[in-house]
Amino acid sequence: MNTFIIIIYTLALLLIFLYSIAQLQLLVNYLRAKNKHDASAKWNLANRDETPRVTVQLPLYNEMYVVERLLENISKLSYPHDKLEIQVLDDSTDESLETTRKKVGELQKTGLDIKHITRADRTGFKAGALKEGLKIAKGEFIAIFDSDFMPQADWLQKTVPYFKDEKIGVVQTRWGHLNRDFSLLTKVQAFALDFHFVLEQVGRNYGNHFINFNGTAGIWRKEAIIDAGNWSGDTLTEDLDLSYRAQLKKWKFKYLEGVETPAELPVAISAARSQQFRWNKGAAENFQKIYGMMFRDATVSLGTKFHGFFHLLNSSMFLLVLLIAVLSLPVLYIQQNDPGYGWYLNIIAFFGVSTIIFFICYWVAYRRIHGGGFKNFFRYIGMFFLFFSVAMGFSVHNSLAVLEGHLGKRSDFIRTPKFNISDLKNGWKGNQYLSRKLPMNMVFELVLFGYFGFAIYYGISQQVYGMLIFHMMLFAGFGFVGFKSLAARL
Fold it and tell me: Residue 424 — very low, low, confident or very high, per pLDDT cuts 50/70/90?
């Protein structure tokens, strides 16, 4: 049994090490990209003959708190009205449907080409709504914004010109965060998303590896959507699915790190759970659906297959993290009580290189957003350990999502509740879209909170401190996620 535990533990560490190597290569790509001048061909939108028709799609489902803000903001996009169409794709089933209809009517009177499009049912969920709107879209290019996104007025001027290159299928922009400093939870979410939108997206794009349209704050060439097989609702992350299918069809993606599109982060832990579940399950579903096609495609480079493997399996790292966490106490016990495994401590120390790589990579992304200097570096150290503690606290929840995705268990697309939080004084507990159910996996999170509390006690009592910081992070992470989930429902 001891040997079996050691083998499984080592294999999990090895996979995470390989994942860290992939991230390190993305860091190298990112640094190279910063020194490269962008010589992309671009249209001159001051010339009306070079200004294409654009359709903006706004998929909605019960967005009572943010729909008016969204429509007001989108109406201010600076683009010739005769070449701009706005589709409000509204699947709502509550009173927001009437609110949206009235607001659309008001904007139509200003001369804006805006339509309120509804369906009899939510077949295909968001993907189905986008596909339905595409059938009648006038634009050659399709910009998509979720209900909590607030693009700047010149957003189309900054993105549309890149489609002069006829091989460009998508232009994606970087997400910003309207409520980054609202709470500890929003700070942690922003920290994770900044890493993805700074280092990962730039690194993959520069290396000519597959990246993903992020579901919003991007713009598609209509021809690319159709050529790739159109939107599909058979996974929970339709954006990742279509992105890979389009790139397998040789469409190029252009990522604009310098164009920020602000949005709202979930402020309630139930909303964060909902979003995390969908993203993580969807990624696993897409691995099962797409990676085989990608691997068999002889025109895709080995480097892109390597990065695609870890990109699509990104969420599956939570399974490895949970496995390493749970086995860490038995491993500690084996080291103390079986002299034959005393050497194993050196093996574990080697895999600490993964942590160093992650620390450097996340620092580069953090510095890009917050700036350098000693003060920010010390703030970063705190955020790094805080983020990984909370991420490990979510590992039970996210691992269940990943398992469902790999095993093919179907589930509905559950939208993330929006709040329209403008400052730290705004409350959110009255939001009618929040789930009031206690998640069953919260019980496991609280059990693991106690488990790692015991692991801390055991390590100190045995005067073995090699895993003490790791166990303290796990103790804090599971405590934060478990008790915050419980408190939100009291």
Answer: very low
Give the ranges where 179-221 is alpha helix by DSSP (H): 184-195, 201-206
Sequence-distant (6+) residues with CB within 8 A of 161 are 42, 43, 44, 45
262: tokens are 């602000």
Closest by Cα among 190, 215, 219 to 370:
190
Q: Is 330 in the same domain as 262?
A: no
Rounded to a whole number, what is the largest CA-CA distance in the chain? 81
Sheet holding 218-221, edge to edge: 114-118, 84-90, 54-60, 141-144, 218-221, 168-177, 252-263
Does 387 lie in the same domain as 321? yes
Q: Are strands 218-221 and 141-144 parallel, antiparallel or unpaired?
A: antiparallel
Compute the half-sphere exposure of residue 28: CA atoms within 13 Å on the CB side of its CA. 8
Do 100 and 225 reside in the same domain of the chain? yes
Residue 260 half-sphere exposure toward CB, CA atoms < 13 A: 11
Q: What is the CATH number of the domain that holds 121?
A: 3.90.550.10
The residue among 120, 105, 93, 43 whose CA lies nearest residue 68 is 105
pLDDT tens sequence across 16-68: 999 999 999 999 999 999 988 888 999 999 898 899 999 999 999 999 989 99
Beta strands 252-263 and 168-177, pairing class: parallel
Structural domain containing residue 102: 52-268
Residue 358 lies in a domain: yes
- Are 377 and 478 members of one domain? yes
Side chain identity at 489, as an amino acid letter? R
- Of 250, 268, 286, the one marking the end of a domain is 268
Contact present, 168 and 254 (Cβ < 8 Å): yes
Question: Is 198 in the same domain as 57?
Answer: yes
- pTM (whole model) above 0.90: yes
In a domain, 359, yes or no: yes
Supply 453's token pair.
């509390």
Q: Are residues 255 and 332 in the same domain?
A: no
Alpha carbon 388 to chain centroid distance?
16
| Active site amino acids | 91, 239
Cα separation, 164 vs 22, whole angstroms: 32
How far is the C-alpha of 483 from the C-alpha of 443, rounded, in Å? Answer: 10
SS3 assignment, position 84: strand
Strands (DSSP E) found in 241-330: 252-263
DSSP 313: T
Mean pLDDT in residue range 135-144: 98
Average pLDDT over residues 318-339: 91
Q: What are phi and psi of 339, to 5 degrees?
A: -55, -25
User: Does the pLDDT of residue 74 top 60, yes or no?
Assistant: yes
25/56 same-domain check: no
**How many domains, the chain?**
2
